């Protein structure tokens, strides 16, 4: 039935007579949901609620469809019918229906009925599957909660701005090639064409991955292909991907000491057992690496953070 909640009251008053028990299946049977029976859907609005009326209406219809109470092909009231029964303007119901249609929940044919979309039902996981996933599937996707405790950066001595800014991760803005950057951006925009509105490869722009692979050869001595390069938003996203692949609670991970605290916090958030390895003027002390097997070693061979040292050739090999 349709119910309307009055302002300042928690009670509801019926706007339509309840559906007889023998006709209760009208709500979910597309064959039976015809004409007046399509109006019998349980919706109530609260005029005292802070949420907009069209949002209340849309949310309840969305819940009925997702919960299987309104099945594919089932007719629902027209905007005029529902507005009259709820005592709201037709535009309010129209806004709710437009949102539901844009989300794929309902379909409407001009001059005809509005009904639950069959396409949406095909894309929804059955409720039974959501309630009782198989043990094997649950074990495969189970992950520890991410408990990242960041540390706020602060100045040791407050006061006027320092003459030389050595803040972490903040290069000199005067050294940034603004003109060259602007010229290259304009060139790229002019030749991009339809690619600006298309989905790109999830690993990143192919041209950029090729350029990085070619750079890593002479610059880092690495023989890699573009297919082996993944573009990420920053080091924290890269560390998170690595941790998801290699770390689980109790996994031993060796890390430089001192190190980049963002890496330490990410591995710890996945439950890793951190094993510190000291660093000197030649980089990480390979003679102090743990004798037992570890899943991974986090090391920055070039410009070690925070000391800035470079790992020597002898230690690399």
List keywords for this structure.
317 residues; Aspartate Aminotransferase, domain 2; disordered N terminus; 34% helix; Arc Repressor Mutant, subunit A; 4-stranded mixed β-sheet; alpha/beta
Provide structural commentary.
There is one protein chain. By secondary structure, the protein is of the alpha/beta class. The chain is 34% helix and 12% strand. It is elongated and about 80 Å long.
How many domains is the backbone divided into? 3
* Cross-sheet strand order for the largest sheet: 9-8-7-10
Kindly report the average pLDDT value: 76
Q: What would the CATH topology of the largest domain be?
A: Arc Repressor Mutant, subunit A
Number of strands: 10
User: Runs with pLDDT <50, length 5+?
Assistant: 1-39, 125-141
Please tell me the CATH architecture of the largest domain by its name: Orthogonal Bundle
Largest sheet: 4 strands, mixed
Question: Quick one: CATH superfamily of the largest domain?
Answer: Winged helix-like DNA-binding domain superfamily/Winged helix DNA-binding domain
- Report the helical percentage: 25-40%
Class computed from helices, strands and strand pairing: alpha/beta
């Amino acid at each position: 039935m349709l119910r309307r909640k009055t302002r300042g009251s928690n009670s509801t008053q019926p706007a339509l007579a309840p559906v007889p028990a023998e006709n209760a299946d009208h709500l979910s049977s597309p064959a039976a949901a015809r004409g007046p029976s399509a109006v019998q859907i349980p919706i109530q609005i609260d005029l005292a609620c802070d949420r907009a009326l069209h949002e209340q209406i849309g949310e309840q219809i969305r819940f009925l469809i997702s919960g299987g109470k309104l099945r594919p092909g089932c007719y629902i009231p027209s905007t005029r019918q529902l507005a009259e029964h709820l005592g709201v303007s037709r535009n309010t119901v129209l806004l709710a229906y437009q949102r539901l249609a844009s989300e794929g929940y309902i379909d409407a044919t001009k001059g005809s009925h509005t009904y639950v979309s069959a396409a949406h039902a095909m894309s929804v996981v059955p409720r039974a599957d959501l309630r009782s996933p198989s043990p094997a599937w649950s074990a495969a996707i189970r992950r520890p909660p991410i408990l990242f405790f960041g540390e706020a950066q602060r100045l040791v001595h407050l006061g006027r701005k320092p003459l030389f800014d050595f803040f972490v991760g903040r290069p000199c803005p005067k050294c940034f090639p603004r003109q060259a950057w602007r010229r290259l951006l304009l060139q790229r925009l002019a030749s991009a064409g339809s690619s600006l509105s298309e989905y790109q490869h999830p690993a990143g722009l192919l041209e950029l991955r090729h350029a990085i692979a070619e750079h890593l050869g002479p610059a880092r001595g690495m023989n890699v292909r573009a297919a082996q390069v993944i573009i990420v938003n920053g080091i924290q996203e890269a560390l998170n991907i690595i941790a998801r692949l290699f770390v689980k609670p109790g996994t031993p991970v060796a890390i430089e000491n001192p190190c980049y605290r963002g890496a330490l916090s990410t591995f710890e958030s996945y439950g890793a057992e951190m094993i510190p390895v000291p660093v000197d003027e030649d980089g990480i002390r390979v003679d102090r690496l743990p004798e037992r097997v570890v899943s991974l070693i986090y090391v920055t061979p070039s410009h070690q953070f925070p000391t800035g040292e470079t790992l020597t050739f002898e230690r690399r090999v």
